[in-house]
Design a protein that fits this description.
With 111 residues, this protein is mainly α. The protein has helices at residues 2-29, 31-37, 86-89, 99-110. Among the domains are: 1-41, no CATH class; 76-111, no CATH class.
């Protein structure tokens, strides 16, 4: 009987502690659990980088979305003027020499 009185609280303490630790880990790392209990969604942010593709794969079939979402604006309007300083944007990209600015100027003149 004395053994049960000693081991019982130890087991109960272990179970409570492990439940708290696992629950906290789920709240901080699992989006569904965080959303359910009102915690902010956990995100992982990394810096963008450009790398070369070293492996390629092939597959047959159709690509289907998991969820189809229709995005619409609350209000629609017509763009009357685009105020872009083409000279300040020229030369910012190594791939966009003079043709990008010329294309923007052509598009701007049609507005």
């Amino acid at each position: 009987m004395k053994l049960v009185l000693i081991i019982g609280p130890l087991v109960l303490g272990f179970l409570v502690t492990s439940t708290v630790v696992v629950g906290r880990q789920l709240m901080l790392t699992h989006p569904t659990v965080a959303r359910t209990i009102g915690y902010p969604m956990p995100v992982r942010a990394v810096a963008a980088e450009q790398v070369e593709l070293t492996e390629s794969i092939g597959a047959n079939g159709d690509i289907q979305p998991i969820t189809l979402v229709n995005l619409t604006a609350k209000a629609s309007t017509r763009v009357k003027k685009v105020t872009v300083d083409l000279e300040s944007r020229r030369g910012t990209s190594s791939r966009c020499e003079g043709s990008c600015a010329a294309g923007l100027a052509t598009r701007q003149s049609h507005l």
